Amino acid sequence: MKKPNSLFGQPKIVQALSLIALSSSVLLLSFLLISNGDENSLTTNTSVEIHDIHGLQVDIENSNRVYLSSHTGLYVRDDNAMISKIGEFTGDLMGFTISPINTNTFYASGHPSLQDGGGSFGLIGSKDGGVTWKQISSGLNGPADYHALALDPKNENIIYGYYDGKIQKTSDGGKTWEYLEASPKNIIQLQPGKKANQLYAATTNGLHVSNNGGQNWTLVSFSNQTVIACKVDPVSGKIIAFTSELGLVYSEKDNDWQQVNFGDNESEIVLHIAFSATDPKKVYLITQSLKLFHSTDGGLTWKLLHIL
Q1: In a structure prediction context, what are the per-residue pLDDT tens digits for the chain, which is 308 residues long?
Q2: Torsion 41-286-289-160 (CA) sign
Q3: CATH architecture under which domain 7-304 falls
Q4: What are phi and psi of 35, to 5 degrees?
Q5: Are 125 and 101 in contact (CB under 8 A)?
Q6: Burial 89-117 (b: 16+ CB within 10 A, else e)
Q7: Distance separating alpha carbons of residues 256 and 12, to the nearest angstrom
Q8: Which strand (E) or helix (H) includes residue 95?
Q9: Residues 6+ apart with CB under 8 A from 115
Q10: What is the rounded CA–CA span in Å between residue 54 and residue 96?
Q11: 213-220: which pairs have CB atoms within 8 A and are 24 or more residues apart?
Q12: Which among 289, 273, 272, 283 is positioned nearest to 30, based on CA atoms?
């Protein structure tokens, strides 16, 4: 497999420091809207600014509706291929996920803006598609600032959050929590698998999986590599990931990883990946440079939707 031309050719300590810098920097996005308003493009009459992207999710009923959590709240790309802000909430949504069962039910974590006093949210939730938010729980040793959140694919009362170097788990929608002591170290993302109680962790030392709700873990692949992003197709179980050594890869079974031809984008660093639950062939990803791509063939080929 050909390695991408990027910071990943440098020593691992440089990679790690660079990735930390990327995750904490504020990147200003002004979307350049480039064509004529179908689902594959954007019209030329709208521009929005987004500071960082911390999460990417596809609506569970509408594969053209994509949510982007950011430094300044939640945004959506709608059926008309227009991007707009949802509601007046301006908090920094560091962790963000949506219910796999209930439309318009979202979960997040992070912290208010400095103008609003700073601090941390703990676990917050929205029942109206991100327009308004309420605190559900402070979590353990909180209020927690979960930079990674995941819901069990079959039971949204089971929620996992990564904070202060440990995974916390609630099985009752946030009323009580426990630490998962056996969890991997240095987690970047948590992602639900296809099956109940299945959870994946993208870390600085490979991709790990638990099949019993986080009690035990197994290294899946990419030992001694940083897995920056991963996502599991909720229908087929196919995994798409982005690693420090191989770039964008996918596996349909038995960890048989294939590198994806990302066109002229070998230097792009993929931060988040999202499958559609209603159309598994449709996949989205967002890069460190805040370019949004999508695929209509399950991630084999990609088209750029937005350009800086």
Answers
A1: 544 444 444 444 344 434 434 443 333 333 333 333 445 443 333 467 786 899 999 999 999 999 999 999 999 999 888 899 999 999 999 999 999 999 999 999 999 865 666 689 999 999 999 999 999 999 999 899 999 999 999 999 999 999 999 999 999 999 999 999 999 999 999 999 999 999 999 999 999 999 999 999 999 999 999 999 999 999 999 999 999 999 999 999 878 999 998 766 668 899 999 999 999 899 999 999 899 999 999 999 999 987 63
A2: positive
A3: 7 Propeller (2.130)
A4: -150, -130
A5: no
A6: bbbbbbbbbbebeeeebbbbbbbeeeeee
A7: 25
A8: strand 92-98
A9: none
A10: 7
A11: 213/152, 213/158, 213/169, 214/160, 214/167, 214/169, 214/180, 214/182, 214/183, 215/180, 215/182, 216/182, 217/182, 217/183, 217/184, 220/255
A12: 289
Paired sense of beta strands 178-180 and 187-192, if any = unpaired
Centroid of chain to Cα 261: 21
Which of these, 235, 192, 240, 241, lies nearest to 213 by C-alpha position?
192
Q: List, edge to edge, every strand of the sheet that includes 166-170.
A: 148-151, 159-163, 166-170, 178-180
Please report, as a single letter, which amino acid is at residue 8. Answer: F
d(CA 150, CA 272): 13
CA gap 162, 15 in Å, rounded: 22
Contact 170, 180 (CB under 8 A): no
CA distances from 232 to 28, 93, 99, 235 (A): 29, 22, 15, 9
Please tell me the distance from the alpha carbon of residue 201 to that of residue 186, in angstroms, as a whole number: 9
